[in-house]
Write a structure and sequence with these properties.
The complex is a heterodimer of chains A (73) and B (262). Chain A has 73 residues and is an all-alpha fold. Chain A has a single domain (11-71), classed as F1F0 ATP synthase subunit C (F1FO ATP Synthase), CATH 1.20.20.10. Chain A is built from 3 helices and no strands. Chain A has helices spanning 11-18, 20-39, 44-71. In chain A, α2 runs antiparallel to α3 (44-71). The model of chain A has no long low-confidence stretch (mean pLDDT 88). Chain B has one domain. Chain B is 69% helix and 0% strand. Chain B has 8 helices and no strands. Chain B has helices at residues 2-9, 36-55, 65-86, 94-109, 125-146, 148-156, 165-210, 220-258. Chain B is globular. Mean pLDDT of chain B is 89; it is low at 1-7. Classes of the chains: A mainly alpha (73), B mainly alpha (262).
């Protein structure tokens, strides 16, 4: 007897799990930027490109998750 | 009233699928070559060339508004990306970076302009071409500056003790020559794809909720559509940010290729 069943694709759950790491990572990048800017306001322009590079590199992991969620059917 | 809307909503498929991104051809039998996407790319190219030619017709020392907008786009890329990140050699790349930025920005913004509402960049082919151009450019300019052997020696041999090199060289090769172009293309593609998918989920989800049997579920469709509106504004930010990130990463790869010593 089936008491409960789950239908549909497991990749949604997989993507949810995969997004945890990049979520923490992106948070760390911006936390570090805010902290460094609070300590040294003049450095905000200097560090901004590195913020976006770091953000983009980490975010790529989350986006790989989306892409592969569709690829691994 | 509600019944009428319900009837309209009857044929709306939910949930959205990847197949929703494959729009039919404009003309019969012209499938991959004449779709909404290829036309949008051509429109973007024509609009950008036309706009910058028009804005710079009869340039004045005290710029008019149109000249000022075009100059601030170019000046922003030239000063805060090309010069700041690459150095004095970067000015030579400013035209390419500015073109890249305005093209990616415009094609991204197609994703939220009413009536167009899909970005060509939500198909991997278009970001891939842009990424391949940037990839070729940074390798070519590195080779041109340092020479073939010296450039690859720079790129592949980090200053490290010899016993760690068998581990480092494959990692460097993989990250510089494979991961860079792939992530450059995939990042833009996945952002535009996911953005369009999210808007589809909330817009079509509103109709799906309206079609629900329970009277208490129907009003939630309004909430869903409000979310779609709010997320459209988020997509504006994402469109600008992804264009910026694409250009900043290209500039940082160029900088790495042109750097004297690591």
């Amino acid at each position: 007897m089936v008491i409960a069943a789950v239908n549909g694709s497991l990749s949604a759950i997989g993507y949810g799990l995969a997004a945890i790491g990049p979520g923490i990572g992106v948070g760390l990048v911006f936390a570090a930027y805010i902290q460094s800017t609070a300590r040294q306001p003049e450095s905000s322009k200097l560090t901004l490109p590195y913020v976006w590079i770091g953000f983009a590199v980490i975010e790529a992991l989350a986006l790989l998750g989306i892409a592969f969620g569709y690829a691994f059917k | 009233m509600s019944g009428q809307v319900g009837l309209v909503a009857e044929g709306i498929p939910f949930p959205p699928k990847v197949e929703d991104f494959y729009l039919p051809a404009i003309l019969e039998g012209a499938y991959p070559w004449l779709t909404k996407f290829t036309i949008l790319v051509m429109v973007a190219a024509v609009v950008l060339i036309g706009y910058f030619l028009w804005a710079y017709r009869g340039p004045a020392l005290v710029p008019t508004k149109r000249q000022w907008i075009a100059e601030s786009i170019y000046g922003f890329i030239r000063n805060s990306i090309a010069k700041d990140m690459i150095g004095h050699e970067g000015v030579a790349f400013a035209p390419y970076l500015a073109t890249l930025f305005s093209f990616v920005l415009l094609t991204n913004l197609f994703g939220i302009i009413p009536g167009i509402q899909i970005s060509p960049n939500s198909h991997i082919a278009f970001p891939l071409v842009l990424a391949v151009v940037s990839y070729t450019l940074f390798i070519a300019s590195g080779v041109r500056k340092h020479g073939f052997g010296k450039y690859f020696k720079h790129a592949l041999l980090p200053p490290a003790p010899w016993y760690i090199l068998p581990l480092l060289v494959p990692i460097e090769a993989f990250s510089t020559f494979i991961v860079r172009p792939v992530t450059l293309a995939l990042r833009l593609f996945a952002n535009m794809f996911a953005g369009h998918m999210i808007l589809l989920v909330f817009t079509l989800g509103g109709f799906a909720l309206l079609n629900a049997d329970s009277l208490f579920v129907k009003p939630i469709s309004l909430l869903s559509w409000l979310m779609a509106v709010a997320l459209t504004f988020l997509e504006v930010i994402v469109a600008i940010l992804q264009a910026y990130v694409f250009v900043v990463l290209t500039a940082s790869y160029l900088q790495g290729a042109l750097a004297e010593e690591h």
